Amino acid sequence: MLDAGCTADAWETTYQQVLTGADPVLDWVRGTALRPVAAALSAEDGHAFEAEYAVALRAAYPATAHGTVLAFRRIFAVAQKQPGA
User: Taking the CA of residue 57 as centre, how many other CA atoms within 13 Å lie in the half-sphere pointing to its CB?
Assistant: First the structure.
């Protein structure tokens, strides 16, 4: 980007999502990262995978009295072409 005459700005933000429900992190990843995994598995294997994955997610993201906290990291980058570049 810089060689193309652009200025660049990049930053990282971590959003602290407070989720509710029986398997809130599993519900969250079903709409994002789990989609390609589910697409690659048969229905039976997908259900078995989700059941095992749910156990691991509950251990990694324990529920609290206020819900389950999921740190959701995002990296942003913006480039602007400079006039005359």
Answer: 22
Range of the domain at 42: 2-81
Contact 80, 6 (CB under 8 A): yes
Answer whether 9's CB lies under 8 Å from 3's CB.
no
**Domains in the chain: how many in total?**
1
Both tokens of 64, joined, read 């609290």
pLDDT in tens, 23-65: 999 999 999 899 999 999 999 999 999 999 999 999 999 999 9
DSSP category for residue 31: T
Model confidence, pTM: 0.74
CB 21 within 8 A of CB 83: no
